[in-house]
Input
Amino acid sequence: MPESSTTDSIKSAEPAKSSGSTSLLDSPAIPRMGAEAGYQLVSEEDVPPLRASGIVCLILGMLSFWAPIAWQMLVIPALAIVFGVIAMRKWGNVRPAGTSAAVIGLLLASGFGTAGVMIPAMKQQTLGKQAEYFAREFLELCGNGEKELALELQKPVQNRQLGTMDLEKAYSEDEVASQQMEEASGGIIDNVMEAGPDIEWKLAQPVDVFVKYGVEKADTYWIDPSGKIDQKIQILLEWHPDETNNTGQWHVSLFQFHRELIVAPSIL
Output
């Protein structure tokens, strides 16, 4: 082959090489190496965006374990769900980073949040049934004439007589107990005793279970279907748990005929 033709071919190839080099420098693509594809170009559109709301959702979801412990902490799973919904909003071709964290956070928040709602509700229902049973038994023992036991149950737990003591003898010999017996004469206990033990007491309204000053209480209202007692009776109970042996006792903190309040209970 002539030397001149070889030189011309080399010169004609130089512009092409120069043109290709210029296009690589001007391109906004990011180089990457693939095991199978070899040397490839990655555009900025292939880089997934970060959604920080998904990370926040995951953190709040893990903190939601406080919700079953205290109902005030239900705000934590609620916030986690809000951030999770924001993180899972619609995206384009590339799935944003942080959505997987949002899914985990949503699952944690939903689980702990549900437990935080269900556990207090179940506890309230259980306390309500126990309070209804105890209040009914209290009315029946009053109807049976067990006045000393009724007075004992109206005392704070720590001030009651021992369970093995003869209450009738204790109230007759103890000066303070005798005075308490005299003060209760002619009161609501005597009215229930006069009505007799055969009354089928009925709840006038559902039991109201609430917490006040850290003490769990149950407010019950009863009516006499026979009409021997024509007034509604209020029995307010307090639950005092004993953590040493996982038991507890009810305290009759209020036993009276129902009185209509002139002002709202929230003001009192």
